[in-house]
Amino acid sequence: MGSIVLEKVHKLYGNVEVIPSIDLTINDGEFVVFVGPSGCGKSTLLRLIAGLEDTTSGAIRIDGNDVTETPPAKRGLAMVFQSYALYPHMSVRKNIAFPLKMAGMDKAEIDRRVEGAANVLNLTQYLDRRPGQLSGGQRQRVAIGRAIVREPSAFLFDEPLSNLDAALRVNMRLEISELHQSLKTTMIYVTHDQVEAMTMADKIVVLQAGNIEQVGSPLELYRNPRNRFVAGFIGSPKMNFIEGAEAAKRGVHAIGVRPEHIALSKDSGLWKGTVGLSEHLGSDTFCYVNVEGIGTLNVRTSGEVSVHHGDTVWLTPGEANIHRFDKDGMAIR
Amino acid sequence: MATKHSRAAARLMISPAVLLLLGWMIVPLAMTLYFSFQRYNLLMPGMEEWTGLANYQYFLTDPAFFDALTNTLLLVGGVLLVTIIGGVMLALLLDQPFFGQGVVRILVIAPFFVMPTVSALVWKNMFLNPVNGLFAHAAKALGLQPYDFFAQAPLASIIGIVSWQWLPFATLILLTALQSLDQEQLEAAEMDGAGPLSRFFHIMLPHLARAITVVILIQTIFLLSVFAEILVTTNGGPGTASTNLTYLIYAQSLLQFDVGGGSAGGVVAIVLANIVAIFLMRMIGKNLEA
Ligand SMILES: Nc1ncnc2c1ncn2[C@@H]1O[C@H](COP(=O)(O)OP(=O)(O)O)[C@@H](O)[C@H]1O
Ligand SMILES: [Mg+2]
Known about the structure:
The complex is a heterodimer. Chain A is an alpha+beta fold. Chain A folds into 2 domains: 4-227, P-loop containing nucleotide triphosphate hydrolases (Rossmann fold), CATH 3.40.50.300; 237-325, CATH 2.40.50.140. Chain A has 9 helices and 19 strands. In chain A, the strands form 4 sheets. In chain A, strands 6-7-8-3-9-10 form a 6-stranded mixed sheet, with helices on both faces. In chain A, strand 1 and strand 2 form a beta hairpin. The model of chain A has no long low-confidence stretch (mean pLDDT 91). Helix content of chain B is 73%, strand content 1%. In chain B, helix 2 (54-61) crosses helix 13 (259-284), helix 5 crosses helix 8 and helix 9 packs antiparallel against helix 10 (196-223). Chain B is globular. The mean pLDDT of chain B is 89. The A-B interface holds A 50-52, 71-73, 77-79, 81-83, 85-90, 98-99, 102-103, 146, 150 and B 182, 184-185, 187-194, 198, 202-203, 206-207, 209. Magnesium ion binds at residues 42-43, 159 of chain A.
């Protein structure tokens, strides 16, 4: 079991308000991703749930029990740290066994569980090495191994992939998702990378300056962002925002349209512009088009369309996919 | 860049310093070795003659030698024990955030700046003195008999004084090591269910192993040659109860004017220091490997 409920959780560091007030429900077995720009309080929130920081006020419930005053070890959660936080003087085997040893489990059961975890994570041949003799990805796996042997009611991950190179990141992303599929344990995953959030989450919590901007499934957030911040944060490349006359024409303060929802044509369309930079990714090409009176718009075209710097092109946004925002940045439906 | 050329140049450049240091070391060593084979007494100048191993024979069969040897080892071991255990505990305390941390840290380091003769005299006259000392006053205030530290526990008293001097050094080294411990490791251990004691023994102590090794090695070098503290307090007595090897050599050469015997003692001390060094490196040297 692992449902987690935050009620009016509030956190001050000295006089600095890091988390004003957060209410959030995480259901058992969900994969929840906290995403937001650096410094928005994601780690703080995770550490509050873990019990590594005290809440200034508010309550945290795990499976219905108030754990606000419970020490971290008694909350039944396991955490994977950004720096892995492996114990450098212990072998991989001892690292993974450490929480079990602390729990006073008997030797045979510890060995069984460590072997099991090592098997799942492909660490069997490294069990007798020290963390210093492992690659980044292997260390990451040891950290995960140390978490899963405890069979916690929920896993907490704090930017676990940010120290890995791009290829490894994609692999580990899959591995963690697979782990979630097979364990079906609640996981809370913190990242600043919206791609990780979109690909892994059942439910995304978008944070900004300690406030929840929106909670929802990846596609919900993509299709119906509640405000300009979420609209700009979710989706890659970023949504184009247009203010001024073009927005006023539609009776709103600002409109937003994603690069993939703008059609590019060489002979006719709504907006006329000239191609500035274009980024060729092979499958897609992203063109930065300077449109008079609007500004620079990023447009996705298929990789086969050939456009060059200085070409004149016409852009047409898909009317159904235009997001409208009022003066406060809230979406108008 | 370590090219062949730059390496040759580097050798050339450091050679004067190396030669100077070598000469500085070799000349006294050679003279000590030379004197140790001479019958050389300051009371009988001009009577020097070759005596072979007689000096060594006298020095090594002197009952005072074995007392001095044990005292030396007890002194080194005792001070190491006190400073390491005390240093770890002080470092743990000083690592906690508290009001006036900066001032307290400076105060803790202060004893290290007091020269050995001064601190030994302060301890002798103001604390341990059986008539005027602070401890004597405290004992009398409690209606107890004052304890004559230097008469009844001379070596332990000296161990106490020397420990007091070296505790700051150990504390400082251990504190910096403790501060370099990754907090996330401690937090991970906390989440893994390790209580404060388990965290100390499983995470902090292994992390401190290298710093403790450094403290042991450096302190041993200096503790083997403790002298001033003994000279100004007990003069090695009562009897030989607080005589260490350094003090015995001093007594031999300058109280009995037997330079030959003192030199032989010096050579013995060098051998002993090297035995201790090899023993230490065997035991804890692996902690220094990265
Ligand atoms: N121990 C602390 N004392 C004071 N301020 C802190 C402390 N830890 C974090 N903060 C502040 O809280 C804010 C949120 O930090 P954090 O939760 O680490 O952000 P994130 O993980 O989203 O990048 C930051 O502005 C940071 O400066
Ligand atoms: Mg963070």
